[in-house]
Specification:
- The chain has six helices and 17 strands.
- The strands form four sheets. The protein has a five-stranded antiparallel β-sheet, with no helix packed on it. The chain has a four-stranded antiparallel β-sheet with strand order 5-4-7-8, with no helix packed on it.
- Strand 4 and strand 5 form a beta hairpin.
- The N and C termini lie far apart (about 100 Å).
- The structure holds 2-acetamido-2-deoxy-beta-D-glucopyranose (2 copies) and calcium ion (2 copies).
- The site of one calcium ion has 7 residues, from loops.
- The site of one 2-acetamido-2-deoxy-beta-D-glucopyranose (NAG) has 4 residues, from helix 5.
């Protein structure tokens, strides 16, 4: 082989390797830039203030238009609808979809769901389903509220978008507050609105509770392990409480079985790890509600309820989700955190009748 041919082949080889290196370098650089851009978004979100409550036209948003580099904070926006049926005194709030929601989880996504309620009377709080790993969920759910025309005009519809997390507190992404006196009730309202930073004032934080549920269908055993609670309200002078947890089962909305944890003295973040097992047949589990409530023990006066939550066949939202996870994972404990609600709120959704008469408790 002539010398020049060897040189040519060698030169071609070197050129090829160089080209490959160049390609890899370019790819790496691009990834780096993308990461930096995402980090920048995060900084903006943390530093910059509130987004205006501007109402925008009803158009499909172009995700590519979202300018992450700009200083504008992006919590995302929500398409909702409002309708009032005067004959039935019924307000219908539709939660249609959201887009460009702020990413709350590592990996740049969120697990959004929306809570809806009416202020200042807050008879009930409704929740949409959770959508996993998306910033553009399509909810298409609607919620009805009984409300008279006169109180309607003094009320505010609140829609809060949260990021669901199984093992930690759910983060709020943003919220909408629509003053209902400003709404033209002659038409069905349907509009996109930018999510605002959540208001700090009105929400009474009652704390959170973590418990695990396990159901063994063959044995007919339901096991509830009360793990811990945190950020509970202080009920006693001195800014503390003596919390214990009541675990109650209702069958066909009748009080059925009840157990209690021990009392943890002077703490707002009690750790229990106490397990309760109930006999619940497979036929009964479909008709059961589990009520978990936190109480402050007082030696001298009546014990006070600090917060409540219920799961089971009549539950909705995150509570139903936990219950369904338990049923679809038989024999496996499933743990989840829940935000506590007021006793009034739970009572208005789940009004329990008196205890089941004794004879129907006995198997024979
Ligand atoms: C919780 O209780 C179980 C059963 O009593 C025990 O095996 C487990 O180690 C406890 N966990 C902690 C963290 O204390
Ligand atoms: C909730 O209902 C229970 C009985 O189901 C009752 O004992 C309790 O007082 C009620 N609490 C409130 C705040 O209405
Ligand atoms: Ca999440
Ligand atoms: Ca006390």
């Amino acid at each position: 082989m002539p010398r020049w041919a060897i040189y040519t082949i060698f030169a071609a080889g070197v050129l090829l390797i160089l080209l490959c290196c160049l390609c890899i370098c370019i790819k790496c650089c691009c990834k780096g830039k993308k990461k930096k851009r995402q980090q920048k978004t995060g900084e903006n979100i943390n530093l910059k203030g509130v987004n205006g409550k501007t109402t925008t036209a009803l158009v499909q948003p172009d995700v590519a238009d979202v300018d992450y580099g700009s200083t504008k904070k992006q919590r995302g926006r929500l398409l909702y609808s409002l309708e009032y049926n005067a004959a039935l005194s019924e307000l219908i709030v539709g939660v249609k979809q959201a887009d460009s929601l702020m990413a709350m989880d590592l990996g740049g996504s969120s697990d959004p769901y929306v809570k809806v309620y009416i202020c200042p009377d807050k008879p009930k709080t409704c929740e949409t389903k959770v959508f996993r790993h998306t910033l553009n969920p399509v909810f298409n759910e609607q919620f009805n509220f009984q409300i008279s025309k006169s109180s309607l005009l003094k009320s505010t519809a609140v829609m809060k978008v949260f990021d669901f997390n199984r093992f930690s507190k759910h983060n709020i992404i943003g919220e909408l507050r629509v003053q209902l006196c400003n709404v033209d009730w002659n038409h069905v309202i349907e509009e996109w609105q930018d999510l605002a930073e959540p208001a700090k004032f009105e929400e009474e934080e009652l704390g959170e509770i973590c418990f695990s549920l396990r159901y063994v269908p063959t044995a007919g055993k339901l096991t509830v392990v009360i793990l811990e609670a945190k950020n509970l309200k202080s009920m006693d002078i001195g800014g503390s409480s003596d919390p214990y947890v009541k675990v109650q089962l209702a069958l066909d909305k009748r009080k059925w079985k009840k157990r209690k944890t021990s009392i943890k003295k002077k703490t707002l973040n009690p750790y229990y790890n106490e397990s309760f097992t109930f006999d619940v047949s497979f036929e009964q589990i479909q008709r059961v509600n589990l009520v978990v409530s936190v109480w402050d023990h007082d030696a001298m006066t009546r014990n006070d309820a600090m917060g409540k939550i219920f799961l089971g066949c009549d539950a909705t939202g995150n509570q139903l989700r936990h219950w369904a996870d338990m049923l679809s994972n038989p024999r496996r404990p499933v743990a989840q955190w829940h935000s506590l609600l007021s006793a009034q709120q739970v009572n208005s959704t789940l009004s329990l009748k008196k205890k089941i008469p004794l004879h129907s408790k006995l198997p024979f």
